Amino acid sequence: MQELNTVDIYCQVIDNYGDAGVCWRLARSLAQHGLAVTLWIDDIARLSALRPALQADLPTQCLDGFTVCAWDAETAFHQPADLVIEAFGCRMPADRLTAMAVMSNPPVWINLEYLSAESWVSEHHGLPSPHPSLPLTRYFFFPGFDLLSGGLIREQHLLAERRVFDGTARDAFLARLGIVLEPGEVLLSMFCYPSAPVGELLKALQSGPPVLCVFPGGLPKDCEALQLGAVRLRSLPFLEPDDYDRLLWSCELNFVRGEDSAVRAQWAGQPFIWQFYEQPEGAHHVKREAFLRRYIASFDDDLAALVTRTWHRWSGDMQTLPDWPALIAALPNWRGHAGAWAGQLGDQPDLAARLLGFVRKIR
In this model, does residue 78 exceed pLDDT 80? Predict the structure, then answer.
């Protein structure tokens, strides 16, 4: 078996910040395994919104244990790594593909796919796809929620750090953000696409217990008032990824969108509502239902029905309004299930470990 020491990850930013966030986390996770990782990204400025220490005008820089390079940084180009990953179907520059093809021992070439809970994932995970004209084979690697998939990105010490995040640590973290909860106030985080019915939610929440809803990345345009009855709103800047994790740990209910924040919400072990990235012909609804079938399998009937109605309404595909006060009241019960779900996922190998195991089998 050949040595596996270096990794190239290619990322083209399409879905807002999600693609950049996933690739940054994957690069850091692989670096924690002792590998020399280079992240090639076509929008360093977008990534720097998440990691302000990055300088958008530098084509090559080191941060978080790996190297970040601009997509077209020709002066930084080196021999292809032992493992080359194209994230989400992007295509690396043609000259780099050619360089791989002429090597006596070509790299293992992986296409990291989008996350899905659909049943067909296990059938396609790990399948080879020979290049039509070059002596190279690309392998499809699907993140997922069971042992027949590629797993989820999880840093080596993440769950241990979350376990010691007690009430004192929570208070100190929130104070650092300038957040002080009033007695009996429920803390929610809100990160959503513009199509989400935020206004409807905020109006409905006014009939329940006091709520503080924080918006990392800023308030939506239609939520200018900072106090709506029993609901307080608070705008936050974009948080660095580790601080975003801590915010998710701190909140009693998290609204998340896309892939990266949804995975982090699951590791938080708190109730969450996931707005899927909209796709043609309602494909995102199919993905939502596939995930919900797994996620609510252990819920009692009433909680399962309440959560399902809420997720459906948040996705905009039904007219029946969910009972938001009832949902808030159900949070303690839901939290127990969310913690068990996080524990179940945490018992499985993480994505980086599975990826390296897969690569070493075929290299």
Answer: no
